[in-house]
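User:
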Amino acid sequence: MQVETTATRPALAAPIVVNDVQHQAPDGVVDGRTILRVAGCTPPSEHVLIQLTGPGSRSIGLDEQVDVRPAGQRNFRAFRADRIFTFTVDEVGYEWGDGEISERDLRVIANVPENKALIIERKNEPDEEFAEGALLDLKGRGAERLVTKKRFVIVSYGDDEQPFKLEPRDYTGAELADIFKIPCGYVVDLIVNGSFQLILPDQTLRAKNGMHFISQPGKGASS
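Assistant: Predicted structure:
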């Protein structure tokens, strides 16, 4: 009877994700070169491989061994590049293979929810909010530093346009009525290009900057 040893035991394939596409690594412990080849990034020497460690990200050398068996250690980004860029989010370090990173990508890899703003800290300049859909230039000297903070949008209500600070999320008409303290029997309307758009109690609406609401008596309510 043959005794199975480490040398004779067959390698077990492991799932990995490179640039949001799933692949199978030939073993649970592989080097960076193998990961790039499996993902079709050839020649590997012309690519930078970044492992998303959540939180944080780090570059993987071509000959560096990576254990991709644990959950949360299987997600990678590959770039055709020859250098690495760095930044921090809430004091957690990240490495990246491109001189720019989009606001959406940064939120994904740093797990920043939409109800938090990303603030770029500047030396000798005012801090700047990383705008939705914008690109952050990482090519400057030193690592960019970002912090997160609770984000709000400003909407207004009534003829006097009273401002309200809301989280940027979906609200039902009933929730808005409660926030604006609308009398019972009245309905919420959103003003869109001078027209009234009724928001039913069970209807949802994403709160955005600059929205203006009013209320009026619903059917059967006295004015």
